[in-house]
Write a structure and sequence with these properties.
The structure holds 2 protein chains of 2 kinds. Chain A is α+β, with helices and mostly antiparallel strands. Chain A contains 12 helices and 14 strands. Chain B contains 5 helices and 5 strands; from the N terminus they run E-E-H-E-E-E-H-H-H-H.
C-alpha cells in the first residue's frame, strides 16, 4: 500500500514548522511518529499535498520537571514515557498507560502529541490526560495558549487545536500526597486499542474518606470524557467496595455509546462501569499506601 | 529526495520519492529481501528492522524519515559466517516453520534482549507482542529467545 504523492518538508525548529503550517494550510499534515497518519495515508483516507515532518525538532522531545509541574514535549514517544524514572516516581499513571498502548515497535515510534492530536475515540492517552487534568500547550502564529484536557477533545477525531497551531507540550501535575492512580482497559483482541479504558486519580482525605476522584473514560463514545456523576458520588465518601460499585455504575451516564461488530453500545457502557470500579478500587488502594 | 543511510554497516546514498516506505527501499532499492512484507498495516511485525537501535515496523516508516539513520536488517546479524545467537536459537529450538515471520521476530527479540538481557517468559511474550506467527504457536519462538539469552549470558555473544 502506497500513499499518494506529496511534497516532504523537514523543519528544524518550531518556528519553521509553524511557518510551513501557515503557508500550506489545509493541504498539509504534520507528521510526528507517523503511526496514525501514515496508515491513513497508505489507505488513502488522508492525502495531504504537503507533509511536514516535525520528527527532527529536538526541542519537542523531552520529559522535565519545572515549577512543580511535569512537562512532556509533544514528540515524546510512548516508550520514553513508559521507561521514564521521573514519571514512574512523580506521575505513575503515564508510564502505566504507556504500557497498555500498542506493541514495542509502535511504542518506539508513536508519540504522545501525535496520539492526542489524532484523537482516535479508542486511544488510551485521553483517559489519562483527563484524570490528571493535563494542560495542552499549543503554539500558533499569535503565540502560545494552554488548553485544558477536558476542553481539548471536541468530537470524533477532532480537537480544540486550530489548523494553524502545533501542539508542543503536555503539562501534568505530579501525584499529590495520599493520592493513587490507575489505568485499566479491555484490549480489543486484534487491534489492542481500548474497547473501553478508564483512568483514575484519587486523593484520600486525612480521615480516610475520598477527598477527590477524577475519572477519565475512553472508548465508550465519540470522544473521551470525565465521568462526572461517578466523581460526584465518590467525593466525601469512604472507599468501601459497595460505595465504589454504586459510583462506578454511573460511569457512562448520558453517553451516546459507540457500537461496532465487536462491542455494542450497551456492552461498552457495562464495561465502563466494570472498569471504572476496578480502576477506582486500585487507585484507592494505592492512595492508602502512600 | 536524496537520503543517506547506513545499513548493516554499509553506507548508501539514494534518490527516493518521499512516499517510498522504508521496507520497499530496503527490498527494492537495496535488494535486501530478508525483510518481509506481511500485513502492510503495522500489525504483523514481519517487516521489523532496527533504526538507530529501535525496533520499528518498516512498513510504517518513510525511507526519508530514516535519512541519516543506522539500520540493521536480518542480513546484518551474522558475522564472519557465524550465526547470531538469536539465529542459532531459532535453528536449535525449531523457532520457525515457514520462516516468513522469522526475520521480524528475530529483530524484535534483538530489541528485547538489548533492553532486558534476562527476560522472563512473560517478558519475552510481551516483547514479541507485535509479531505474528501463523505456524508455531509461539512456544518454540519463546524457547529460541531463551536459548539466545542464555547463550549471551554464558559469553556466546
Amino acid at each position: 500500500m502506497i500513499s499518494e504523492s506529496f511534497e516532504y518538508h523537514v523543519p528544524k525548529t518550531i518556528e519553521e514548522a509553524l511557518g510551513m503550517i501557515g503557508e500550506f494550510g489545509d493541504e498539509s499534515k504534520v507528521l510526528a511518529g507517523g503511526h496514525s497518519l501514515l496508515p491513513m495515508m497508505k489507505l488513502r483516507l488522508a492525502s495531504p499535498k504537503h507533509l511536514i515532518d516535525i520528527g527532527r525538532i529536538g526541542a519537542l522531545r523531552y520529559i522535565r520537571e519545572s515549577e512543580g509541574q511535569l512537562e512532556l514535549g509533544a514528540l515524546t514517544t510512548h516508550f520514553e514515557i513508559e521507561s521514564s524514572s521521573l514519571l514512574k516516581s512523580k506521575c505513575p499513571l503515564l508510564p502505566e498507560t504507556a504500557r497498555e498502548i500498542g506493541d514495542v515497535q509502535v511504542c518506539n515510534r508513536g508519540t504522545l502529541g501525535g496520539s492526542l492530536v489524532h484523537a482516535d475515540p479508542a486511544a488510551d492517552w485521553p483517559a489519562a490526560m483527563l484524570a490528571v487534568e493535563a494542560e495542552m500547550v499549543a503554539r500558533g502564529p499569535h503565540g502560545e495558549r494552554k488548553i485544558r484536557a477536558r476542553d481539548f477533545f471536541v468530537d470524533l477525531m477532532a480537537t480544540a487545536l486550530q489548523s494553524d497551531e502545533l501542539l508542543t507540550a503536555i503539562r501534568v501535575s505530579p501525584l499529590p500526597a495520599r493520592t493513587g492512580d490507575a489505568y485499566l482497559k479491555l484490549h480489543h483482541p486484534a487491534s489492542g486499542f481500548a474497547v473501553v479504558g478508564v483512568a483514575v486519580r484519587l486523593t484520600l482525605a486525612e480521615s480516610g474518606s475520598i477527598g477527590e476522584a477524577r475519572v477519565g473514560v475512553t472508548g465508550v463514545g465519540a470522544k473521551p470524557y470525565r465521568a462526572e456523576e461517578t466523581e460526584r458520588l465518590l467525593a466525601g465518601k469512604s472507599p468501601t467496595a459497595k460505595r465504589l460499585e454504586e459510583a462506578a455504575a454511573h460511569a457512562a451516564d448520558g453517553v451516546d455509546a459507540n457500537s461496532d461488530l465487536y462491542a455494542s453500545g450497551d456492552y461498552r457502557k457495562h464495561l465502563a462501569a466494570v472498569y471504572a470500579r476496578r480502576a477506582i478500587q486500585r487507585a484507592a488502594e494505592r492512595a492508602a499506601g502512600r | 529526495m536524496r537520503i543517506q543511510v547506513k545499513v548493516n554497516g554499509t553506507a548508501f546514498e539514494s534518490d527516493v520519492e518521499p512516499r517510498l516506505l522504508l521496507v520497499h527501499y530496503l527490498r527494492d532499492v537495496l535488494d535486501l529481501t530478508g525483510t518481509h512484507i506481511g500485513c502492510e498495516t503495522s500489525l504483523c511485525g514481519a517487516c521489523t528492522v532496527l533504526v538507530n537501535g529501535h525496533a520499528v515496523k518498516s512498513c510504517t516508516l518513510l525511507a526519508v524519515q530514516a535519512n541519516g539513520a543506522e539500520i540493521t536488517t536480518i542480513e546484518g546479524l551474522a558475522s564472519d559466517g557465524k550465526l547470531h545467537p538469536l539465529q542459532q536459537g531459532f535453528w536449535e529450538e525449531h523457532g520457525l516453520q515457514c520462516g516468513f515471520c522469522t526475520p521480524g521476530m528475530i529483530l524484535a527479540a534483538h530489541q528485547l534482549l538489548s533492553r532486558n538481557p534476562h527476560p522472563t517468559e512473560a517478558e519475552i511474550r510481551k516483547g514479541l507482542e507485535g509479531n505474528l506467527c501463523r505456524c508455531t504457536g509461539y512456544q518454540h519462538i519463546v524457547k529460541a529467545v531463551q536459548y539466545a539469552a542464555e547463550k549471551a549470558a554464558t559469553g556466546g555473544q
